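Exercise 7.
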Amino acid sequence: MHTHQTAKQLSHQGFQEARRIQQSFLANVEKRTLIWLAARTPAWINSDHLTALGLLAMAGAGAAYWWAGTNRLGLLLVIVCLALNWLGDSLDGTLARFRDHSRPRYGFYVDHIVDMFNAFFLLGGLALSGLMSPAVALGLLIAFLMLSAEVFLATYTLGDFKISYFKMGPTELRLLLSVGNLCLFFWKSTVHIFGRAYKLFDVGGTLGISGMLLVMVISAIHHTMKLYRQEPIPVGRPLPAEGQKKLPFSSLTACDPCGNGRQDSARDAEFARGPGDHGYRRLYCTRDSFQPYDSGRNHGQ
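Solution. The predicted structure, written as tokens, is:
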């Protein structure tokens, strides 16, 4: 028990979970539904099982779209897969919190890595089906990844994890896609705009691309301004030492860590060992101060 508590404390040390912002049309109803389902979920099912269900369901949706290119029944199968994806993708986190089994870092990482695969499966299936042009499907994937990157950066820098925009969240998008499938199944796959025929999903996909890029740009501007207000350019900070000012700021230069403005010998400048280091680090002068450069750590190794 002591070992388990120590490991759990270490896993959360220095980590603060971001504030979730969910303001979609169905947010309140969905939350109550998920809590009701979590209370009745069998004990042998855990959040990882639900995450896997969501991933497999979206892979199934992509395959069903591919099949829909030759058999419209695939459109109905997509709706079933989207419902299963909602169950797995939405209930996994609720179940973990309901049972007090939260793993915030693991959950955030795995959930959004799975989202990347889900988008690839779904849009890949649409592109292969012929119901959507491959160029539009690729544009949707790129726009989704760009918006996701902005959300993740904002989550890291501001501590706010925004799930919905303009009252539209993942659940509303699944419902909208399901309605589109029903239109294709019972109606037709083309629409006429200004006298020209377009694929229904191409029109919807183009609107989706425009919407996601607009949200991404607006959010990027808003968050940049907010971060700048929190961290403005310092005013009145003392200038660097005279010796350091002579160093070219446009390149990294091995230099004297004591600030004497002289270059060390090749051997002394190349390596310097700091307290607590697990290896040797090069010392470089940067614009503001001397910084250690670790070729392994700074490149994700």
